[in-house]
Task: structure prediction
Amino acid sequence: MAEDMSNSAGGIMADLDRSPVSGVVKWFDPSKGFGFVIADGGGPDILLHVNVLRNFGQNSVADGARVDLLVQNTNRGVQAIEITAIHPPETGHSTALVDIAGLAPEEIRAVPLEPARVKWFDKAKGFGFANVFGKPEDVFVHIEIVHQSGLSDLQPGEALAVRVIEGKRGNMAVEVQAWEHVLNSDGSEDS
Result:
């Protein structure tokens, strides 16, 4: 019967068992600790648990982000067991933040990644602040930058790598990444 189910789904169940899959995050709720991914090849939604994200070095992922992952077919359905890459959602437009609207991607990449911790972040308000280690100034972090970086939310105390510029109203992050992801990437940065 299980073979019949995999065949009726276009072979997707057989292909998903401990296999690499690419897809899009349908939704992820950090407070619930899980969400779902829609595989590019179709088939059932893939459960994405927060522990799988944490193993990748993140606590959240933005809705609409592209993910590459390994999945396993269980008696409860298809579940992600490892994330190999997260790509920020394609927004179809550049950031609406005036301070960085004119910056070319090369200019942003030229700014060094610095270790930081989230001071506080309010997803509902759409912003928060982080502190770069060894520097007393707060760094403004806008929700749009968080989403462009492939994250959906930040938690107080969370370790980050940030690219910071001097904006019209002070220091602001132009990119954020989970610190563990930067450490695990061996210095090569994802685009």
About this structure: The chain has six helices and ten strands. The two ends are 43 Å apart (CA to CA). The first strand starts at residue 20 and ends at 29. Helices lie at 2-8, 12-16, 50-56, 105-110, 143-148, 179-184.
